[in-house]
Every structure is written in C-alpha cells, then in structure tokens.
Design goal:
The chain has 233 residues and is α/β, with parallel strands linked by helices. Helix content is 31%, strand content 15%. The protein contains seven helices and eleven strands.
C-alpha cells in the first residue's frame, strides 16, 4: 500500500501563498517514490494579495481563499485541512512561500515572537503527528514559521540554512537551529523531523530540487518503517 503523505499548502504564489517550485518538486518526488500525496489547506482567506510582478499589495481586489488558491497547484484535488487527521497520514510535508508565514501562521505579521501562533487545524495536525513520532518535513521558511511555532518549546532542531535572524526567532520559540547548505537537510532524530532551506538560501531551482529530493526521500522511508512510540502501544 502506498504511503499517504500529507502536503499542506498555503495558497498559490511565493509572495502570498505557497512557493510553487517547492510544492511541485515535493509532489514530483513523492510520486517518483510511489507515495500518494494528500493535498490539504485551510478554508480561510489570505492575509493579503500580492502583485507578483511588483511584490506590492494589490489594493481593491477581491479577497482570495487559501483552499481555493491552493487547488490551482493540485489540479483541483485537495481537502480542507479540517477533514484530515493524523490517522489518515503516514507522513506530512510543508512547502514554503510567504503563505507559510502569513496564512498558515502569523509569524510574518507579528514582531513579538511570544504573540505568534499557527492556524488552529495546522497546529493540531502537527502536534498529533509529532506525538506519534510520524515523520514531518518542513521546507524553506516553514521550519520557522510553522514548525517552530506549532511545536513551541519542544527543543526541536530545524534548519533554514544560514539566516541568522530567522534562527534567532526559532530559538525564541524554544527550539534550536542548525546551519546547513541549501542542498542539504537536517534530521532531528529524536523528533523524526526533517527540514531543508530551499529558497531561503538556494540560488537556483536545481539547488532547491536537490534538498527537497533528500527531504521527501527521508519522509517516505521513515513513514514506511514507522512504529508507534511505546506510550501508544
């Protein structure tokens, strides 16, 4: 039976949603490994709509829905994250993009770290997966904006490459940071969490692909050999 790996999206487009390259490469490598992507996003409005040619907010435009915008990437096959539970999945992956910091959490909107929170159902799913030690992969900004936020105070090590400011915020959230190259991954073995910098530091889609390929492979392999922690047996 194919491993069912959740892919959580935050809209469509790097500046106000999901980073499309990262999402597509995640899907490609999952399917190459014979895994079944389970696409999901919250049914909420984006925090903003950005003109991707100028990187400026678009004024006077209709609000955009994160779930509907994410469906553009998945060719319409997507679930409301409210309908997906830990027992439905063998693993979980979060691509990056500003939506991971402005839609799935408010990490990119609030200056004070102690005020930051992740979307309710995102937080719940991550914590349920983490409690069972099922593998979770975080890409680009999502280790900081989602992983470190939803798993605040868990002393988990993530990587966002060599971004000192982002690393400092991860530490403020009670977790740790490890410097890596854009093509590498970091694995926190104690927590079964994998992260890669992708476009946080990558200079090309080739570099992004190398890191995501490694991350996806780890998530799928770990999902295929997962056993419940003793506290759940």
């Amino acid at each position: 039976m194919a491993m069912r790996i959740g892919v959580v999206l935050s809209g469509c487009g790097v500046f106000d949603g999901t980073e499309i390259h990262e999402a597509v490469l995640t899907i490609l490598h999952l399917q190459k490994l014979g895994a079944e992507p389970v696409f999901m996003a919250p049914d909420i409005f984006q925090s903003s709509v950005i003109n991707h040619t100028t990187q400026e907010p678009q004024e006077g435009v209709e609000e955009r829905n994160v779930l509907l915008e994410s469906a553009r990437i998945t060719r319409g096959k997507i679930k409301n994250i409210y309908e997906v539970f830990e027992q439905d999945l063998d693993g979980l992956i979060f691509p990056g993009g500003f939506g991971a910091a402005k839609n799935l959490s408010d990490f990119g909107l609030k200056v004070e770290t102690d005020e930051v929170s992740a979307e309710l159902h995102v937080t719940s799913l991550i914590n349920d997966m983490h409690d069972k030690r099922k593998p979770i992969g975080f890409i680009c900004v999502s280790p900081a904006s989602i992983g470190a936020v939803a798993l605040r105070g868990k002393d988990i090590n993530f990587t966002v490459g060599n971004d000192a400011g982002m690393a400092a915020r991860i530490r403020e959230l009670g977790n740790g940071h490890v410097v890596t190259e854009s093509t590498d991954i970091f694995i926190d073995e104690n927590h079964n969490i994998i992260s890669t910098p992708a476009y946080m530091t990558a200079k090309s889609i080739v570099e992004v692909d190398e890191g995501i390929a490694k991350l996806v492979k780890e998530v799928v392999q770990r999902a295929s050999t997962w056993t419940a922690p003793e506290t759940y047996l």
